[in-house]
């Protein structure tokens, strides 16, 4: 009745809510429910009433009809009506109908009372509804009471119980009653809904009787009582669940206190087929199942519900714990049985998952239930100690071994250990759990720390015999310990707090054994260690610990750091140079699986800038490339069929496999090596190393195969291949590899499909609405992907140089471009319209692009038109105020008037210092004094550092630097054989001609040039030609790439900068450039200086990767990762890299991004303060833009913002303190790397 009534009310709830809040209206709805509800006769409550009427009243009605039909009267309508009325009247007036009505009303009243009582308890906090609920309760009780009084008050014994009957059952269930009476009483009790039992006044007495029944030796009573508890757990009422759980828990506590003598001791086998053990296991299993399910619901109920459940559970589990006393007569406890049922402590894992229950649980473990935690820690330590003292095969359960009937004492102890291990390892994940350590234990003189636990676990892993297999539920101790440590080491907070040098030293012991320092550890042990190290290196704290040995000293990192030992092992494993094992003269090389696992650990370190620099000496890129080439040759020689593609994150089989497995091993080994080699492309310098191996095309092709399948980079990576694709595309060689692999075709195809709304699924049937935004959100991601790939000049040059645009008379709408070159005529063919000048959004955007490409200038040096048709700042919303640029000269509205600097020289501390020194005094000491003076002046009066003072400072600094051998790294030397010399006067390239025009126009605009434009243009062209001829004598070209097949392809913006700084003087410009060309700073200030230069190694020169990218960009990312992780993360999440934008800025000497004054200060700072200040300036710029970077990361247009907009508000003089701080921390690393180009 209760369930049926509840279902009926739930189904009519919407109708009742619409009854205008009136009880009378609600009653009217219920009275006419049969007329309005189509499912009326399908409700269980209605079916219950109908079945009772048919059962009790049906025979009476049939009998009355038969009696009245014998008369044989005519079958008329009036006759039928009279018959129905007569039969109905007799049936309603009968005693059967009266009893039936009374019974239904009584059961309904009881069910309604239970529902209302539960509703009041569950919603006791909703005070606003209490009055209405009490009124509804009274109204329903009065309705049923009136109905009951109408049909009589007699009540025969039926299937519904009243309070006196519950009292009678409670008396009959007393343990002193005969067994038959108790069985009958319990049977009758099981027929009553659990909610009625709990609501009865005899519940406290019934509760005691049920616990007695659970402990009874009679199987019927104990099993029936347990079934009744299981039935009560299914009731969705927290009070019933709470009472049921505490009843079961208290019974088990009492049972273990009274009957534990009947259990076997910890040193005796356990036979789980004995009836008393079977019943005990069933009780604990029921308890455990509720423990695992209750966390999903207890947040809905009062906090007291949670506290009672936790307290009851921990009280049971802490019962009779021996806490390391090792008494052979100790009996098995509830914790031993729970360990057999839930060996991985899933109940504890679920209880700790939510913060709601975690705080209560940890507080309990810190207080009176601390013995449970102490026992778990002791079990872990003692098991490890015993196993290390007596190494032997440990018992472990197999998932297939499900029909065992006996557990040996060793298996029982092992199950207890596994449960304790899962308990402790799960607790240590959370901050509150770690705060419980160090833990005081009586049998230990010192408190037990987390590091002690970890070290003991790692030592036991040394006994590993089985290799870890993904997705395999192994119960070997080493495998469980390895997984537990890995789950902890992926937490950065845990590593910072709990992992120290002692733990790292323990992890390195197996590795050093393979390097010739003792007996070799097993390969299974090595694989577990590699997994733990990989988890460590996936966190910032763990990576720093391995790289710096806990000192965190980047200036002079420790040679004993773990990274060096790991890299040495990986290198020697790849090269086959490991020392021979003392126990055997052959077979020194580890398996592919072990080598690949430790190469992956190294990869976790070298795919960040700091780790790559530290591991550079081991030449891992070359070792991996050589191993890949050997594997590739082996596969090619032995197999003619193409290899099947495998996931490189799969585990390799053992080398002793059959032939088919060996072939699979070889293919997976080859892909593993390619995958690890590819990850060098995660950093700018790593990309240079990858290019030098000659395997970049194969690596990019492998990346493309995984990228198209949407696979993650590795098991430890959170991002996909987007950033790596962008990094690769920043170089000419990388762009060429992307094009060969089909990356560009895939990106353009995806973009074109979005543009044309031509997806296969909804091409014709459901076209999408045409977007109103300039860039549709659906196409935005594809467009940004193409922007990332084509954001560097090297990429554009490699793809478009000497490529003629295809020209077709017409293009079909089903045609899709296959390359960037082909896409241009496609786009043009889709642009149509009138040739007249029309002010619309498209013409405004065209006007913006024309003005922007024709003018040059940083903040305040050029005015760009609005990109919106309706300017919100104008009063007249229908008037576009900017003139359209459709013929030369450009409208004057776009060229602001810049006041000329006063010609009178203003004396400053810098000018006084320069005038007071002589030529002979220009040495290292003088240079240090100059730098100190410059810093002081830049901080106090940066506006005075301009014009003649600035040029004089640069010239005298160059004189001092020429006398320092460490700065004069590009000495004049005769060109090598094969160097390019062209005595004829070359024609001026078109790109240079356009660049000269832009530079002269900009120089006149900022008042840097006094001569007329034609003369200045001729002088600048002559300077560019002279520099080009000088540099060509020190260049060696390579036909492998378009970029390296000839002279520097870009306009030389640095030469143009020097020319403007010297007011257009041709001779002075050439003289200063020749002096700079011998110094280290020229390799970074002057991008054309080292283009295809003979001063570079053959590999670097052939790669076409400039030092601006591989060195400056690398160190910018290094500092950002350490000092400004938010900025670095914003770039990664945008699929863009800091090295790309810094290369773009520096290649054009910050033209269009900084004002002319700031550009001259940039050149002055690099020449005077050192080449490493180029890195610090770029970091300062990105820090200055941090707010905008984070903001545009949210709008997903970071690349466009950084490329298109000038840097506003940046003054280099204001960042000197910050740059000096960076110099103190990073100069030794940055400057050393810059000198080693």
Automatic annotation (TrEMBL):
This protein's UniProt keywords: Cell projection, Cilium, Cytoplasm, Developmental protein
Domain of life: Eukaryota
Region (Disordered): 639-663
The BROMI N-terminal domain, residue ranges: 5-130
Amino acid composition bias (Polar residues), ranges on this chain: 646-663
Annotated localization: Cell projection, Cilium; Cytoplasm
Gene Ontology BP terms: non-motile cilium assembly
Domain BROMI middle region: 165-820
Annotated ranges, domain BROMI C-terminal Rab TBC-like: 835-1237
InterPro entries for this protein: BROMI_C, BROMI_M, BROMI_N, PHAF1/BROMI, Rab-GAP_TBC_sf
Record-linked Gene3D superfamilies: Ypt/Rab-GAP domain of gyp1p, domain 3 (1.10.472.80)
GO CC annotation, single: cytoplasm
Known function: Required for high-level Shh responses in the developing neural tube. Together with CDK20, controls the structure of the primary cilium by coordinating assembly of the ciliary membrane and axoneme, allowing GLI2 to be properly activated in response to Shh signaling.
Listed name of the protein: Protein broad-minded
């Amino acid at each position: 009745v209760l369930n049926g009534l509840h279902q009926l009310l739930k189904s009519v709830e919407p109708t009742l809510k619409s009854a205008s809040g009136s009880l009378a209206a609600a009653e009217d709805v219920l009275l006419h429910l049969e007329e309005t509800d189509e499912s009326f006769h399908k409700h269980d409550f209605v079916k219950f009433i109908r079945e009772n009427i048919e059962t009790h009243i049906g025979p009476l009605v049939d009998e009355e009809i038969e009696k009245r039909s014998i008369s044989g009267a005519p079958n008329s309508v009036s006759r039928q009506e009279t018959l129905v009325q007569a039969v109905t009247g007799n049936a309603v007036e009968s005693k059967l109908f009266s009893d039936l009505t009374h019974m239904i009303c009584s059961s309904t009243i009881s069910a309604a009372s239970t529902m209302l009582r539960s509703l009041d308890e569950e919603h006791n906090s909703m005070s606003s509804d209490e009055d209405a609920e009490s009124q509804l309760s009274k109204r329903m009780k009065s309705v049923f009471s009136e109905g009951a009084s109408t049909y009589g008050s007699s009540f025969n014994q039926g299937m519904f119980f009243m309070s006196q009957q519950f009292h009678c059952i409670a008396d009959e269930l007393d343990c002193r009653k005969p067994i038959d009476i108790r069985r009958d009483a319990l049977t009758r009790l099981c027929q009553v809904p659990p909610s009625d039992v709990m609501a009865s006044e005899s519940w406290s007495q019934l509760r005691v009787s049920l616990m007695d029944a659970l402990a009874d030796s009679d199987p019927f009573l104990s099993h029936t009582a347990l079934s009744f508890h299981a039935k009560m757990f299914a009731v969705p009422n927290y009070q019933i669940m709470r009472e049921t759980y505490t009843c079961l828990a208290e019974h088990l506590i009492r049972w273990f206190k009274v009957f534990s003598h009947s259990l076997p001791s910890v040193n005796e086998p356990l036979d789980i087929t004995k009836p008393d053990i079977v019943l005990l296991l069933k009780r604990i299993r029921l308890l455990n199942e509720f423990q695992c399910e209750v966390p999903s619901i207890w947040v809905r109920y009062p906090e007291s519900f949670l506290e009672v459940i936790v307290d009851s559970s921990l009280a049971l589990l802490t019962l009779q714990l021996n806490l390391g006393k090792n008494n052979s007569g100790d009996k098995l406890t509830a914790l031993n049985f729970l360990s057999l049922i839930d060996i991985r402590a899933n109940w504890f894992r679920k209880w700790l998952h939510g913060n709601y229950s975690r705080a209560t649980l940890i507080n309990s473990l810190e207080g009176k239930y601390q013995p449970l935690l102490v026992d778990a820690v002791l079990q872990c330590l003692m098991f490890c100690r015993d196993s290390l003292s007596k190494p032997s095969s440990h018992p472990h359960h197999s998932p297939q071994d499900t029909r065992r009937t006996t557990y040996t004492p060793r298996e029982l102890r092992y199950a207890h250990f596994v449960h304790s291990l899962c308990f402790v390892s799960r607790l240590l994940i959370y901050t509150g759990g770690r705060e419980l350590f160090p833990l005081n234990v009586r049998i230990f003189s010192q408190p037990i720390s987390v590091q002690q636990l970890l070290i003991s676990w790692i030592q036991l892993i040394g006994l590993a015999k089985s290799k870890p297999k993904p997705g395999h539920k192994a119960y070997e101790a080493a495998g469980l310990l390895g997984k537990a440590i890995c789950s902890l080491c992926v937490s950065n907070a845990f590593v910072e707090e709990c992992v120290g040098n002692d733990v790292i030293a323990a992890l390195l012991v197996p590795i050093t054994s393979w390097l010739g320092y003792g007996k070799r550890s097993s390969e299974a042990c090595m694989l577990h260690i590699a997994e733990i190290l990989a988890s460590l290196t996936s966190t910032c704290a763990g990576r720093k610990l391995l790289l710096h040995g806990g000192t965190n000293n980047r200036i002079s990192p420790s040679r004993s750091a773990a990274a060096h030992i790991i890299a040495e092992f990986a290198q020697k494993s790849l090269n086959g140079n490991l020392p021979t094992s003392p126990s055997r003269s052959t077979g020194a090389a580890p398996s592919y699986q072990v080598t690949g696992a430790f190469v992956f650990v190294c990869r976790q370190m070298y795919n960040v800038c700091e780790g790559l620099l530290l591991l550079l000496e081991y030449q891992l890129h070359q070792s991996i490339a050589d191993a890949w080439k050997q594997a590739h040759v082996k596969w090619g020689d032995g197999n003619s069929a193409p290899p099947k593609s495998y996931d490189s994150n799969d585990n390799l089989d053992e080398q002793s496999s059959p032939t088919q497995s060996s072939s699979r091993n070889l293919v997976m080994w080859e892909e593993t090596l390619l995958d690890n080699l590819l990850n060098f492309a995660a950093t700018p310098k790593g990309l240079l190393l990858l290019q030098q191996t000659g395997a970049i095309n194969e690596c990019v092709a492998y990346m493309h195969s995984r990228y198209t399948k949407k696979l993650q980079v590795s098991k430890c990576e959170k991002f996909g291949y987007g950033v790596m694709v962008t990094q690769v595309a920043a170089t000419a060689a990388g762009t060429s590899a992307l094009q060969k692999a089909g990356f560009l075709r895939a990106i353009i195809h995806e973009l074109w499909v979005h543009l044309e709304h031509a997806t296969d699924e909804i091409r014709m049937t459901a076209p999408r609405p045409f977007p109103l935004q300039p860039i549709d959100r659906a196409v935005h991601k594809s467009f940004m992907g193409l922007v990332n790939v084509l954001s560097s000049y090297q990429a554009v040059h490699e793809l478009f140089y000497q490529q003629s645009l295809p020209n077709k008379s017409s293009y079909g709408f089903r045609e899709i471009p296959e390359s960037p070159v082909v896409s241009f005529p496609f786009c043009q063919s889709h642009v149509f319209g009138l040739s007249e000048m029309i002010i619309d959004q498209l013409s405004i955007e065209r006007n913006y692009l024309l003005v922007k490409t024709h003018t040059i200038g940083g903040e305040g040096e050029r005015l760009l038109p609005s990109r919106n048709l309706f300017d919100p700042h104008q009063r007249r919303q229908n008037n576009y105020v900017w003139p359209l640029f459709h013929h030369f000269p450009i409208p004057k509205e776009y060229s602001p008037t810049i006041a000329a600097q006063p010609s009178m020289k203003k004396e400053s501390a810098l000018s006084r210092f320069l005038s007071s020194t002589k030529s002979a005094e220009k040495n290292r000491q003088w240079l240090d004094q100059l730098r100190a003076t410059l810093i002081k002046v830049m901080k106090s009066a940066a506006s005075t550092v301009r014009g003649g003072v600035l040029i004089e400072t640069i010239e005298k600094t160059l004189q001092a630097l020429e006398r320092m051998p460490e700065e004069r790294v590009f000495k004049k030397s005769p060109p090598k054989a094969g160097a390019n010399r062209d005595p004829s006067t070359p024609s001026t390239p078109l790109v240079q001609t356009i660049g000269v025009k832009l530079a002269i126009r900009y120089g006149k605009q900022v008042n840097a040039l006094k001569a007329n434009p034609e003369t200045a243009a001729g002088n600048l062209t002559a300077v560019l030609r002279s520099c080009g001829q000088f540099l060509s004598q020190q260049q060696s070209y390579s036909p492998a790439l378009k970029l390296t097949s000839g002279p520097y392809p870009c306009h030389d913006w640095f030469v143009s900068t020097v020319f403007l700084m010297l007011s257009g003087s041709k001779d002075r410009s050439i003289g200063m450039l020749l002096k700079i060309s011998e110094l280290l700073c020229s390799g970074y200030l002057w991008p054309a200086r080292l283009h295809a230069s003979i001063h570079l190694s053959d590999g670097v020169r052939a790669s076409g990767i400039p030092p601006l990218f591989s060195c400056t960009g690398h160190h910018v990312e290094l500092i950002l990762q350490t000092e400004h992780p938010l900025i670095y993360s914003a770039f990664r999440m945008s699929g863009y890299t800091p090295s790309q934008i810094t290369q773009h800025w520096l290649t054009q000497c910050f033209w269009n991004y900084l004002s002319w004054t700031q550009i001259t200060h940039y050149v002055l700072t690099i020449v005077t303060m050192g080449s490493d200040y180029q890195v610090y300036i770029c970091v300062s710029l990105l820090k200055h833009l941090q707010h905008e970077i984070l903001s545009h990361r949210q709008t997903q247009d970071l690349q466009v913002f950084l490329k298109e907009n000038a840097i506003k508000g940046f003054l280099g003089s204001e960042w000197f303190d910050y740059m000096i701080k960076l110099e103190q921390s990073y100069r030794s690393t940055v400057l050393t790397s810059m000198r080693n180009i």
